[in-house]
Amino acid sequence: MNENSHKGEELKGKAKTVAGKATGDTGLEAEGKADQVQAEGKQAGDKVKDTVHGIKDSVKDSSDD
Question: pTM here?
Fold first, then answer.
């Protein structure tokens, strides 16, 4: 998955949270919060991967000199 799909998951979780609060459905609210946390974790993982790839590319470029 990519960053955009994780953001979509986060927004879906927010929608569930709001719907759960509006209807008094604590289960739906909790499910929405869990979806948000999971999506945020995936986004953080993607950022780590991007950083590692950036460092790897920098090291590769500097060794080519």
Answer: 0.74
- Looking at this protein, which amino acid is placed at residue 24? G
pLDDT, tens only, 32-62 = 999 999 999 999 999 999 999 899 888 887 7
Q: Let me know how many helices (H) and strands (E) the chain has, helices first.
A: 2, 0
Of 43, 16, 12, the closest CA to residue 30 belongs to: 16
Under 8 Å between Cβ of 10 and 23? no
Helix, strand, coil shares, percent, the chain, to 5: 90, 0, 10
Residue 49: C-alpha distances to residues 6, 11, 30, 44 (Å): 14, 22, 29, 9
The residue with tokens 């950083």 is: 51
Q: Which amino acid is at 18?
A: V
